[in-house]
Amino acid sequence: MKIRNFFLPTLREDPAEAETVSHKLLLRGGFIRKVASGIYNFLPIGLRTLKKIENIVRAEMNKAGALEIIMPLVQPAELWMETGRWQAYGKELLRFKDRKNHDFCLGPTHEEVITDLVRGEVKSYRDLPLILYQIAPKFRDEMRPRFGLMRAREFIMKDAYSFDANVEGLERSYQLMYETYHRIFEACGLNFKAVEAHTGAIGGDVSHEFMVLAETGEDTLANCEACGYASNVELTPAISGEKYPTEPRKPLEKVHTPNKKTARDVAEFLGLPLAKISKTLIYITEDGEAIAVVLRGDHELNEVKFEKALSGRSFRPATDEEIFSLTGAHPGSLGPRGLSIKVFVDQALKDFPNFVIGANEDDYHFLNANLGDTFDPHLIADLRKAKEGDLCPKCGNPLQFIKGIEVGHIFKLGTKYSSAMRATFLDRDGKEKPFIMGCYGIGVSRIISAAIEQNHDEKGIIFPWQIAPFHIGLISLTKERENHQEIYDHLSEDWEVLWDDRDERPGVKFNDMDLVGIPVQVILGKNLQERGEVEIKIRKTGERLQVSKENLKDSIENIEKALCQSS
Ligand code: ATP
Ligand code: MG
To answer: φ, ψ for residue 358 (rounded to 5)?
Structure first.
């Protein structure tokens, strides 16, 4: 492709609307343009990378025996009412009416539509297992669309759904997809990790996320180098390696703590370690119940664990007025003692002697609170976020925490959707049974952002060879058109080549080529005519080599091999 004939509107400056590196580079490199918040055009160079990823995903899914279909983006409300998600899904589900006043939504995911399809067509265990997938747009009216393709409202997902006759079958389908996902992300040239994950709004009991490792990732993973255990920190059991202080229980003592609101302030004021200061948080559940949660001052509430403790009920922080009417105090002086609402306590406080609690009276705390003596909680459970230094739940060695970007998520759904929608088949024993389902998503468009977050430098993107929009960027610095055309044709026999044949300054050409992240640059300068030599620059390492025209293909082949092995 000659740049002259291409549409590559690169930008020299960072656009103000972009916060993250990948968002800036996607805009600057002319990959995408914003249409509305979280809604983008893909320009030609962006589409090339998107298609590369799609093709890798498609090839591996097909190899696994999954069958491609396309389902509609627009979905009727009736199907969502059958599973109860028309109400339960919340505002991410964009609902609207057609001209006949019928309710519809834009599909954020396709469990309902696929279950409806399969219940109508598949009648016998003989037709199972079945794995269907699509690569298609999804719409989620995200609360905070951001970071370009990372959290868009309209985005491209690969979603697959498996149907099996029994749990052993689901186990096999799940394992097959787990392995297929490893092959997909390897084939994309990404550094990634599979972790145990929380099932969220999709439901089901077991799930794994696939994370592209990048310092800028929104997700935190707990990883055990010793045994290979890895989980999303939302799910990681918090197991402390600390020794508890051994001291006898002391009598409760009220102290004046004027204007000391945070646990840190109180710790400093009282001259005690932060761990000894508890904090009490008050939440209101979706059905209006107020619950107090007590944690150590140096610990954070894990909202996923808390939601589980609430039997899946969602919750929000109580307002200051609600807090005052429930406790008689304002935030900063709250404690579990004497409350008439349920109190949940994190297990780290279970045998922890003589900690500090708020007195439910502004500017007062109690020293020497002890579970059982000072108050009796309704529940003691693991409610806190695991943190660096906590121990691996499998082998007991310390966990490391790393950042990642979720690019894939696989779930064992069981019969959640098939039971709700009466999607059944006739089993070997002549009985009608609900399909046992799994579902498997990949954020195809998010992979582009994730790949850039993982692979860039101050000059721009450094795409892995496998998903680069072009393999070779050919840069003409002299005006020997015919000679250059010959090299372009020669290289194009084996690779995808973007040829910068513009009458621009060399600096502009070099900058653009670095920006868009093409892995190999071939620079055609004076040496071509004088000595029959061209320069190769490897984008990732910056390494430059002079090679003769005759050796050009061999050299690039070697570079391709090395790049594909290293990524
Ligand atoms: P997240 O926690 O990031 O919101 P999710 O759990 O809602 O993700 P799934 O429903 O499992 O995501 O969707 C499958 C995949 O689709 C995700 O792993 C992610 O890669 C991608 N994805 C989800 N939401 C978005 C979005 N708003 N923009 C781009 N990709 C997305
Ligand atoms: Mg989401």
So the answer is: -70, 155
pLDDT, tens digit (0-9, with 9 covering 90-100), for 485-528: 999 999 999 999 999 999 999 999 999 999 999 999 999 999 99
Q: Give the ligand at the shortest distance from the Cα of 152.
A: 1
Stretch (H or E) spanning 179: helix 167-187
Residue 389: predicted pLDDT: 87
Q: Would you report the helix, strand and coil content of the chain in percent, each value rounded to 5?
A: 30, 30, 40
What's the start-to-end Cα distance of the chain, in Å? 26
Which residues in 253-383 belong to E strands, given as ranges? 253-256, 278-285, 290-296, 315-317, 342-346, 355-358, 364-369, 379-381
CA distance 397 to 558: 41
The sheet carrying 497-500 orders its strands as 497-500, 472-476, 520-524, 533-538, 544-548
- Does the beta carbon of 443 lie inside 6 Å of ligand 1? yes
Using CA atoms, how far residue 525 sits from 302, 504, 522, in Å, is: 59, 14, 10
Q: Give the torsion sign (CA, 424, 426, 430, 434).
A: negative
Q: By C-alpha distance, which of 333, 342, 337 is closest to 381?
A: 342
Cβ atoms < 10 Å from Cβ of 246: 7
The one-letter code for the residue type at 416 is K
Best residue for ligand 1 mutational test, from 109, 219, 446, 453 (most atoms within 8 Å of Cβ): 446
